Amino acid sequence: xxxxxxxxxxxxxxxxxxxxxxxxxxxxxxxxxxxxxxxxxxxxxxxxxxxxxxxxxxxxxxxxxxxxxxxxxxxxxxxxxxxxxxxxxxxxxxxxxxxxxxxxxxxxxxxxxxxxxxxxxxxxxxxxxxxxxxxxxxxxxxxxxxxxxxxxxxxxxxxxxxxxxxxxxxxxxxxxxxxxxxxxxxxxxxxxxxxxxxxxxxxxx
Length: 205
Fold this sequence. Notes:
By secondary structure, the chain is mostly helical. It contains 11 helices and 6 strands.
């Protein structure tokens, strides 16, 4: 996260309110906020170091592909910068509070292997294959129903802000809205697809 440059009599305690009032805390100055407004899935590709702000941007991705050289590092505590792009809250929910405390309070690097084991990274590949793997994942998403993909991402992310009872209610509410918004032709096509699936022989798996 950024910090205002000291100038004249400015100190961190006096600079912060003035800096925020000039719009530095607005979404336009915060790439993570901009990413969170994106309705389409974001597939991140990381090779090498993702440090502090880079770490926060990585956490804002919906899926993450990491090269073997990838290292995620939170240096807020080292330099006395208070996080403001969500890292302190997102990381603990993603990898667990104990691991998040160690990562952030000791400024220890998270390797690609650790990131995959802890659920931070979806895939680990050789550095030379990071971008191609990310594109492969994105293309797999793009082959699906685009409208449903957007709505699915939304209900997952919004549900994470709720307890299970209210998250299930949210899913049901949006499902009703989705089906009510279908045309007769769309609903008929969906029924044909379901009937076709049910007529297939059961899998041996």
